[in-house]
Design goal:
oxidoreductase; NAD(P)-bd_dom_sf; 3 domains; alpha/beta; Malate_DH_type1; 11 helices; malate dehydrogenase; binds nicotinamide-adenine-dinucleotide; tricarboxylic acid cycle
Length: 413
């Protein structure tokens, strides 16, 4: 795998980072989300005099997203002969992104990855503590996004003014032996308070909810927005990208496929058996034995626990989560920038099943979700059909728990 994650950059002969000219022919290309051979003109993270050629088999985004990104920039460079060549204009758009919970295990690496995006003009970092240092540190990276820090509830409103995308990883992570639902009471209150502030200060923003249990925190957020009269179902997303990232990785390993080629839609919810990878929909088409389906499905569903146990008390998935969340942010920014070919899985208000919220692939556009993709649920295997029916009662209970929490708060208030 090490060989496939190596990236080669060739920039004429050199690029400058700070004041040093650094030969890049054997360097790694960090966070640049392109497969195959790509040419980037003046990528903002590296002050290159001429175009950068970047050969990579690793991708920040995955194949479909990379293709979409290529397409989104292709018109600016002309489409001829650009199958593997395109030009990325830094600051193609000027989106503002806020991270609430930015000093945490997920928040910090997520902030770094978003700081590297050429689509971000301002990055607002909010937390109840320790965010000043994170912002000072990040602000020294020579990428265009301006980094601003906001500490404590008195600065929450200002952190949200004029923001296009709000990402919420604030909360308490899972500890060994804890289920996602054990986190409920603490994180439910945090999400409620933060989303109230979003409703008051940037009601048109895309809202990405990472704080667990996502199956319940998304319905809580929706109730809060409804109560405030600003709910737009197209703009509230439970971030389930990590399930897709894990599914793609595990399937590629198991079937010895190129990582960049693999795409597995993951539907349902974001906890235990509610996570349903649709292995029969894997691209490229690949066959699995019944044992492989069972083993992969269970591994994808329990991958969070794998990390929690390996960290042995020091938190839950943070780096892979930050990577997955950054991919989802980048997709949203591309959609806001006018890319008409952006698809991601997310946990959203849905009519695909009888449940009011459900994770599936969605098409994202400038104004949020343009379509919920139903075709993935057609022609499921018997195993997937059974798993889908089995997850519904648990997901329903988690949704109802979230709604009941939010309604109880309203009555109390
Ligand atoms: N959606 C997913 O796939 C996924 C994956 C992993 C973790 N998570 C969840 O993400 C959350 C964060 O995990 P972490 O590992 O970064 O935890 P962490 O404890 O390292 O960081 C949480 C951060 O939130 C901050 N915070 C707490 N209350 C806040 C408030 N009221 N306002 C703003 N900030 C506040 C804390 O100060 C801290 O910096 C947890 O709920 C965890 O379960 C979700």
């Amino acid at each position: 795998m090490a060989a496939t994650s190596l990236t080669t950059i060739t920039i004429g002969s050199s690029a400058s980072i700070g004041s040093k000219a650094i030969p890049l022919s054997r360097s790694k290309c960090f966070g640049v989300s392109f497969n195959s051979q790509n040419y980037l003109k003046s990528f903002s993270g590296l002050k290159a005099a001429s175009s950068i050629s970047c050969e990579s088999e690793a991708s920040f985004l995955g194949k479909e997203s990379s293709a979409a990104l290529r397409n989104s920039f292709a018109p600016k460079a002309g489409k001829q002969n650009l199958r593997h060549q395109y030009y990325l204009q830094p600051q193609a758009s000027s989106s503002k992104v806020a991270i609430l919970g930015a000093a945490g295990g997920i928040g910090q690496p997520l902030a770094l990855l978003i700081k590297m995006s050429p689509l971000v003009s301002a990055l607002h970092l909010y937390d109840i503590a320790n965010v000043k240092g994170v912002a000072a540190d990040l602000s020294h990276c020579n990428t265009p996004a301006q980094v601003l820090d906001f500490t404590g509830t008195s600065e929450l409103a200002n952190s949200l003014k004029g923001v296009d995308v709000v990402v919420i990883p604030a909360g308490v992570p899972r500890k060994p032996g804890m289920t996602r639902d054990d986190l409920f009471n603490i994180n439910a209150n945090i999400v409620k308070t933060l989303v109230e502030a979003v409703a008051d200060n940037c009601p048109d923003a895309f809202i990405h909810i990472i704080s667990n249990p996502v199956n319940s925190t998304v319905p809580i957020a929706v109730e809060v927005l409804r109560r405030k009269g600003v709910y737009d179902p197209k703009k509230v997303f439970g971030v389930t990208t990590l399930d897709v990232v894990r599914a793609n990785t595990f399937v590629a390993q198991k079937k010895n496929l190129r990582l960049i080629d693999v795409d597995v839609p993951v539907v349902g919810g974001h906890a235990g058996i509610t996570i349903l990878p649709l292995l029969s929909r894997t691209k490229p088409s690949v066959s699995f034995t019944d044992e492989e389906v069972e083993e992969l499905t269970v591994r994808i569903q329990n991958a969070g626990t794998e990390v929690v146990e390996a960290k042995a008390g020091a938190g839950s998935a943070t780096l892979s989560m930050a990577y997955a969340a950054a991919r989802f942010v980048e997709s949203s920014l591309r959609a806001l920038d006018g890319d008409t070919d952006v698809y991601e899985c997310a946990y959203v208000q849905s009519e695909l099943t009888e449940l009011p919220f459900f994770a599936s692939r969605v098409k994202i556009g400038k104004k949020g979700i343009e379509a919920v993709i139903s075709s993935d649920l057609q022609g499921l295997t018997e195993y997937e059909e059974k798993a889908l029916e089995a997850l519904k009662p648990e997901l329903k209970a988690s949704i109802e728990k979230g709604v009941a929490f939010a309604q109880k708060q309203t009555v109390t208030a």
